[in-house]
Specification:
five-stranded antiparallel sheet, 2 helices, 5 strands, rod-shaped, alpha+beta
Length: 152
């Protein structure tokens, strides 16, 4: 009489005969695909770092322009720093304009502003404040505001 074997024993033997594992070629192909994916991710990381730096510089420029524009608007209407011609005079130096070097990044922000009185509107001055900087290219941020003569 033939001895019957347990079904689990037969299944394990079959698996051993059919399971061969991965060949060296299959492993190498998988590594090449993985390395291509990792190279793409590293390229995206470099782009993200550059965009983060650019965003920081833009934010710094907007903050500078906003601060200086607020200070200009706090002056009296007839202040010498706000006297402009109808065509507009660009102020590139003085207490509210000039170069500012960021101590953390050594980026130089050039600040200028223009003041003019629009012809059809009496008692109103427009102020345009511009901040420019160079970081692999020339960038600029401009803010504009108006102020009125309280005496009118």
């Amino acid at each position: 009489m033939r001895q019957l074997r347990h079904p689990m024993t037969i299944d394990r033997r079959r698996r051993r005969r059919t399971a061969r594992g991965l060949t060296l070629l299959e492993v190498m192909i998988a590594l090449v695909i993985l390395s291509i994916g990792l190279l793409a991710l590293s390229g995206m990381q470099v782009t993200a770092i550059r965009a983060n730096g650019s965003g920081f510089m833009s934010t710094k420029a907007i903050s500078l322009a906003e601060l200086q524009l607020r200070q200009l608007k706090s002056l009296s209407y007839s202040n010498a720093n706000l006297v402009g011609s109808p065509a507009g005079v660009v102020y590139a130096a003085g207490p509210y304009a000039g170069a500012y070097t960021d101590p953390n990044s050594s980026v130089v922000y050039n600040q200028t502003y223009t003041v003019w009185e629009p012809a059809p509107i009496a008692g109103v001055k427009l102020i345009a404040y511009t901040v420019t900087w160079t970081d692999g290219g020339t960038h600029s941020v401009s803010l504009m505001s108006r102020m009125g003569n309280e005496l009118l």
